Request: fold
Amino acid sequence: MATEKDQGSATRGSLRLAPNCIELEEQKAKLPRQFVNFTFYHARPEWRLLAEAEKKNCREEFVETVQEFSRQLLVHTYSTIGLRTNVDFMIWRIGYELDPIQEMTSRLNHTQMAKYLEPAQSFLSMTKRSMYIDKDNPDHVEDRLHIVPGKSDYLFVYPFVKTREWYTRTADQRQEMMDEHIRIGSKYRSVKLHTTYSFGLDDQEFVVAFETDHPADFLDLVQELRETKASSFTLRDTPMFTCRRRSLAECLEALG
Reply:
């Protein structure tokens, strides 16, 4: 998949940067990076044996705890009910420090609902620059440097690792292969790519997430990318998670 760095290199290689573009590049370099975390949860069978009143109390406490961190983190939630058997919902968190992510997780672990939930998968990564903002937070102004995440109905998330041979190729060779990826990606305007980086932070090298309202477009994009030369340098790009945007209350209600 084309990363932000690859896309930027392609632009610089084919066009001379105008003065305003140079200023934009300098702005990007000054912006702080963000931590990004995707955590997938699975409900234990014991959850469905609880009385409805107890379930309601557990759900409300869990939702309230997450909401308490809305000023420190960007938080988006997705349901995976019926889409995979090993995970039921996902929380996407974005922040400038790791502490709020850890504190939020600790607080959630102390809720009553934590007795019935298992974190089945977690991916930690960083942006190369500050790229996400909260559209509901008046302290942030949306501009060309920022993305408002969680606006599409579907999110497709997976870890990504390239072969070691990829890194032995010259920069020009890699750029030529990534140019092909970029050309293909540009055909699918309905699919937005988020590339974040995990080198030294987690088991994968990248975490890629695609937002779209049209799953069929994402399927066609991935199938076409499989035929590119760069695809032969993919070591791992699984597990893949199909996620449906839902409020946290809706995600928890769907657990049964």
Observations:
- The two ends are 37 Å apart (CA to CA).
- The helical segments are 4-14, 19-30, 52-67, 99-109, 164-168, 171-185, 215-225, 248-253.
- Residues 2-19, 138-145 have pLDDT under 50 and may be disordered.
